């Protein structure tokens, strides 16, 4: 069957571990090379990736494009608004047509269900480049960053502070599969989905507040309080006021690495001092999107 990469929980722990190891290996193998240097084995030679964006993107767009070049392939990028998709052509018909023209499709969609529908009608692998429900590519880049700074993620403790959103959901999915503990501090109204929490099983706990979550943690991670598609901006700013990651909070986790998928809203969920400070690994994290996604693409193309 097709190797879709839609949610982490659909993959086996062995496949996920192999993807992360491949990301480490590929990153190490090209240290110092120009960004366009093609890896010697070029596992995406003769392959084309289509990217479809229903929402804005900087990192996902540029990292997938760079990743395809480095793997020896090519990519084609369009926003849904530019496509007939934006004029009512169905998801399924779009999937059938793109399947005849490219070897894999990455899609960033407003509704998670649309990615599932796309995959069901596609005859090539489909990659989730973020939906309202999850962001699996991001978590592979994050775990790559954690392992660079802290060694194997298995047995580590990660603290998630703030909104129980799409990125949080993918962290929850990852916890039992990679064997780390996830402590979530989140205001009641913005808790993660119960289905996601069930997938996290005993690796995931909801704790009482940010201080309890970060104490003794190896990693502290947060994300915007207002995701793409959220409309209740004022209510959110109020609900999350006590969840800002600042220097005072980080004093409780002096050895922790700080992560943020970016874009950051400086002065809201994270202070300048933390984002630009010695514990922050956010620029490595952004770069690691390329390395992690090369491993995902290699897996989708059956080269792993
Ligand atoms: N972190 C992330 O996915 O960034 P973009 O929205 O810029 O792709
Ligand atoms: N949670 C954010 C992540 C952006 C990369 C959003 O969905 O907007």
- What's the level 1 CATH class of the largest domain? Alpha Beta
Give helix % range. 40-55%
Portion in beta strands = 5-15%
- Side by side, the strands of the main sheet go 7-6-5-8-9
The outline comes out as globular
Ions and ligands: phosphoric acid mono(formamide)ester, norvaline
Unreliably modeled segments: none
Q: CATH topology of the largest domain, anyone? A: Rossmann fold
The average pLDDT is 98
The CATH homologous superfamily of the largest domain: Aspartate/ornithine carbamoyltransferase
Rg computed from alpha carbons, rounded to a whole number of angstroms: 19 Å
Give an overview in words.
This is Ornithine carbamoyltransferase. Belongs to the aspartate/ornithine carbamoyltransferase superfamily. OTCase family. Carbamoyl phosphate binds at residues 57-60, 84, 108, 135-138, 261-262, 289. This protein is an alpha/beta fold. It has two domains: 8-134 and 289-300, Rossmann fold (3-Layer(aba) Sandwich), CATH 3.40.50; 136-285, Aspartate/ornithine carbamoyltransferase (Rossmann fold, 3-Layer(aba) Sandwich). The protein has twelve helices and nine strands. α4 (112-121) links the parallel β3 and β4 (126-128). α2 packs across α12, α3 (91-99) crosses α4 (112-121) and α5 crosses α12. It is globular, with a radius of gyration of 19 Å. It binds phosphoric acid mono(formamide)ester and norvaline.
